[in-house]
């Protein structure tokens, strides 16, 4: 990494192609080349780790945690350096499929607005589809778990349609629903619906009888039995369903976007691939990794907040 | 019987008239859980039902609670037939009956909320927390407290509705003997304070003698009442006292379990 800091003009290295290193103007009137940008990114990363190290140094617990992560962070640096050497310097990796890290940063320098727009599109599609799917799943799950009649009629339908990957409905969704957005929403709804509904139903149905009997001897009516006994008991199950649905929904989201959406990260990948702009594909993948991790993290926070009564009761 | 004066009639809070209850078990056999059981329970009485497992004592308690219905016969509480569970018949289950997703104070308050009482109940709940000696554990979840504490919470949850009758289904069955003795004293204290009628199902003879005014001895297959024994000892009772031990021998003999020289299971 460090030898790249020497200005290109002064080093006499065999040039593979005549490439003009473009500079992009960023906020505040600065202009950056991709090499400078990558340098800043690396310096930023190193400073971040140094800051964490300094912060952790004075606390016994944090220091141990920091030390435990040292080998992994060192490996990150080594891998980045190796990638840079193979992908940018020596061009050993097949181009343009595996660009170096600085090239990927170029995608962000070039069209960060466009990437941001597509990210927002994905986020909007995911939120609408996933929230509707979870709401719908919890609703039907409660009905299936509570009423034997609903179980009899709806559960087999759920079992058969649930195993079909949601994207298989794509042709129908695109034809029958008015807009591409509503079509993709529909696909995410049904892919989230299945795991949430079946696990909610299982959670409701497995409520110990003694809990219902306790509530009834205290004078509880059906409303209390459903909302204050069965549903709280089913909550751990519901959250298992939601995290499964989460993973399904990411897959469905990206596939739906790749197959017929006017925007979104999946669309961006597809559009970039057509121009062989694989560095943009990687940029979109990185955005997805960050976005989806953030979503998972928020879901985890919500879950541990709602299920805090389980703390110490279950392993992990 | 029909000649009884009115004052004696009103003394009876619960009347059980020739109740029958049969079950079909897993192997399609008909099990007579209760055969022609009749019993009257007096107001403010501490009554224990004792017997070996399968004698129908829990079935009888569940019938009184309204969690189960008899095939014939009837149960009358304060002049009304029992058809379904109601908060005036509090029920304390054997163990693990607290809602694991509610804290100690929320579990106690659930007694009020379950029957649709949503008024401010903080003071009331706090009183019961103090009464069962769980101050400092209000915000604990059931898995964070001991089995004995959990049973005290279950008792408080049933008592917060001010029941006429508190039904106790071996509430101390799963506890160690020290915790058990502790809760027995707590129960006596609550009984004297709240003037509740207590009906306790147990398989522990000492527990029955220590707590009860009368002991109903039941025998299995078919489940029926063998004998009703008046205890008639003043409180506090001494578990090693001669009257206590002779009562113990009588009951064990009735249960066909008495040995020549019965040894107390524990002495405190």
What does this structure look like?
The complex is a heterodimer of chains A (316) and B (268). With 316 residues, chain A is mostly helical. In chain A, 74% of the residues lie in helices and 2% in strands. Chain A is built from 10 helices and 2 strands; from the N terminus they run E-E-H-H-H-H-H-H-H-H-H-H. Chain A has helices at 34-56, 60-89, 101-146, 148-162, 170-176, 180-205, 209-217, 222-260, 265-274, 278-306, and strands at residues 23-25, 31-33. In chain A, strands 1-2 form a two-stranded antiparallel sheet. In chain A, a hairpin with a 5-residue loop joins strand 1 (23-25) and strand 2 (31-33). Chain A is flat. The two termini of chain A are 40 Å apart. Residues 1-6 of chain A have low confidence and may be disordered. Chain B has 268 residues and is an alpha/beta fold. Chain B has one domain: Rossmann fold (3-Layer(aba) Sandwich). In chain B, the strands form 2 sheets. Chain B has a 6-stranded mixed sheet, sandwiched between helices. In chain B, strands 2-1-4-5 form a 4-stranded antiparallel sheet. In chain B, helix 3 crosses helix 4 and helix 3 runs parallel beside helix 5. The longest helix of chain B has 18 residues, at 177-194. Chain B is globular and about 45 Å long. The interface between A and B is medium-sized, with 22 and 31 residues.
């Amino acid at each position: 990494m460090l030898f790249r800091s020497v200005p290109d003009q002064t080093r006499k290295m065999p040039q593979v192609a005549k490439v003009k290193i473009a500079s992009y103007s960023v906020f505040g009137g600065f202009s950056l080349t991709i090499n400078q940008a990558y340098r800043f990114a690396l310096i930023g990363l190193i400073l971040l780790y140094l800051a964490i190290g300094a912060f952790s140094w004075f606390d016994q617990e944090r220091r141990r945690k920091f030390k435990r992560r040292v080998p992994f962070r060192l490996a990150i640096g080594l891998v980045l350096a190796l990638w840079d050497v193979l992908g940018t310097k020596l061009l050993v990796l097949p181009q343009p499929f595996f660009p170096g890290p600085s090239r990927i940063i170029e995608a962000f320098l070039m069209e960060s607005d466009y990437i941001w727009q597509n990210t927002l599109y994905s986020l909007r599609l995911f939120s609408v589809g996933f929230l509707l799917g979870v709401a719908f799943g919890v609703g039907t799950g409660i009905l299936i778990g509570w009423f034997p009649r609903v179980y009899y009629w709806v559960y087999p339908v759920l079992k058969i349609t649930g195993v079909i990957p949601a994207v298989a409905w794509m042709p129908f969704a695109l034809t029958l629903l008015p807009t591409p957005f509503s079509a993709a929403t529909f696909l995410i709804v049904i892919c989230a619906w299945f795991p949430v509904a079946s696990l909610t139903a299982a959670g409701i149905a497995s409520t110990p009888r003694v809990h219902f009997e306790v509530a009834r001897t205290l004078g509880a009516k059906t409303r209390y039995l459903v909302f204050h006994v069965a549903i709280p008991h089913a909550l751990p199950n519901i959250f298992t369903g939601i995290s499964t649905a989460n993973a399904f929904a990411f897959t469905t989201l990206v596939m739906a976007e790749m197959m017929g959406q006017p925007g979104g990260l999946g669309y961006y990948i597809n559009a970039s691939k057509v121009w062989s702009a694989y560095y943009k594909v990687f940029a979109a993948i990185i955005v997805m990794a960050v976005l989806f991790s953030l979503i998972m993290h928020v879901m985890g926070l919500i879950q541990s907040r709602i299920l805090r009564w389980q703390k110490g009761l279950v392993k992990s | 019987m029909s000649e009884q004066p009115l004052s004696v009639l009103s003394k009876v809070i619960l009347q059980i008239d020739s109740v029958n209850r049969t079950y079909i078990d897993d192997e399609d056999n008909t099990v007579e859980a209760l055969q022609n059981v009749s019993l009257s329970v007096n107001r403010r009485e501490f009554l224990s039902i004792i017997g070996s497992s399968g004698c129908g004592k829990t079935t009888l308690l569940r019938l009184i609670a309204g969690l189960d219905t008899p095939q014939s016969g009837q149960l009358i509480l304060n002049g009304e037939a029992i058809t379904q569970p109601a908060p005036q018949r509090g029920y304390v289950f054997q163990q693990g009956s607290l809602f694991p997703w509610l804290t100690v104070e929320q579990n106690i308050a659930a007694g009020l909320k379950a029957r649709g009482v949503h008024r401010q109940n903080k003071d009331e709940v706090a009183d019961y927390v103090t009464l069962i000696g769980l101050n400092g554990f209000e915000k604990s979840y059931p898995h964070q407290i001991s089995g004995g504490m959990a049973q005290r919470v279950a008792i408080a949850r049933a008592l917060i509705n001010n029941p006429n009758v508190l039904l106790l289904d071996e509430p101390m069955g799963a506890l160690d003997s020290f915790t058990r003795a502790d809760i027995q004293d707590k129960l006596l204290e609550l009984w004297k304070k709240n003037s509740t009628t207590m009906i306790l199902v147990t398989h522990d003879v000492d527990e029955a003698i220590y707590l009860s005014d009368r002991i109903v001895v039941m025998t299995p297959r078919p489940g029926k009442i063998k004998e009703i024994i008046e205890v008639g000892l003043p409180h506090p009772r001494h578990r090693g006292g001669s009257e206590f031990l002779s009562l113990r021998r009588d009951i064990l003999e009735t249960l066909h379990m008495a040995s020549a020289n019965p040894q107390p299971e524990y002495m405190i």
